[in-house]
Description:
Blueprint lengths: L14 E4 L5 E4 L3 E5 L6 H5 L6 E7 H17 L3 E7 L10 H10 L4 E8 L1 H14 L3 E5 L11 E6 L2 E6 L5 E5 H4 L4 H28 L5 H16 L9 H21 L8 H15 L7 H18 L15 H10 L13 H10 L9 H7 L3 H13 L2
Parallel strand pairs: 3-10, 4-5, 4-6, 6-7, 7-10
Antiparallel strand pairs: 1-2, 8-9
Helix pairs in contact: 3-4, 6-7, 6-8, 6-10, 7-8, 9-10, 9-12, 10-11, 12-14
The protein binds zinc ion (2 copies).
Amino acid sequence: MNEILNLAINEMANTEFDCSCGRHHNFSIHDIAIGKGAIKELPRVAEPFKEGKILIVYDDNTYKAAGREAKQLLDDAGFNVKELLFDRGGELLIPDESVVGRILEEQELDVSLMVAVGSGSLNDSVKYVSSRTKVPYIIVCTAPSMDGYVADGAPLICNGYKYSYPACLAYGVVGDTDIMKEAPMELIHAGFGDVVGKITALADWDLSVKVNDEYRCETCVELVQRALDKCFGQAEALKERNDEATLYLIEALTLTGVAMGLVNISRPASGAEHMLSHYWEMDYIARGLTPIHHGTQVGVATPVIAMFFEEMADLLPEGTGALCPPHKEIEALLRKAGCPVTPKDIGIDRDLFHRSLIEGYKVRPRYSVMEFAKAHGRLEEIADKITNTIYGE
Ligand SMILES: [Zn+2]
Ligand SMILES: [Zn+2]
């Protein structure tokens, strides 16, 4: 029972076990290779698909970071490789209809595997195509920037709006820490912010278990909690692109994905802090602006949600408040890693911020401390107070 807690991350692929939560869990990613020099594992991970053609997809940034090497490794191992390069002249790739369409066009009938080299956008685009065409894919991660490597949803832009489409898990995940530690620092900060968000995600989950009798799996909570402790313990070293700190960061991002995969809900990874982030992002997209990195938004939203827990402390069910540290501690953690700390730091204006506190709980049908505050008639008062604290009276 709960065997997964004794496994190293690279052993977690294809696990199945009876859990103390009463359910039988299985995790269907077939291969995980994370660590120093892990990109060398790519031919081994791809081996079962050697009969067919491999479609490898990258953009000009990720080609330089890892794509060139990935393609070379596959060529040298005798694979039949076809490449698709999105050349955006260094600009950010937006995962929209045109990107998904191009991948589909290049996917000839004899393609047996796709290899995506990148982080957010490329992973999501290839994941989406993989789920619709049933051609499996391997993700070669280039940045520890978000937790979507091991998640089954694909957020894409359609008609200028962002939708999160149901998709599928990757066949394999290859994460080379030597490559990821060289990612742009803002992407490393974004990944750290996404991990920080798990603090309030777990507290929100606990709240909903106690208020709504929602399902909870202690094994998953422990899996995530242990990964957070390791990652936060090395926060300061991230600034120096330290090997171990990068490894713990990508492990934490991956393990929350594993936890989500086990329980088939995103509770271990996302709570009210993600709802604020989505609210801001939708506002930016609606105004035609490029949204701030997902994890960066999540990071600065986390102390805000911690303030909600503080304000509601007298009404919280027993034990829930203890799961959320004081907001000042979370701010200090972000500062330690060199991340932005408040929504103001990343340019969210006062009006948008205040609106997001009032309306953010509606973004998803998911019970959180914001809805808890609403139910107790305290939402407006708390929103005003937090806004004044961050933006001044
Ligand atoms: Zn996230
Ligand atoms: Zn369980």
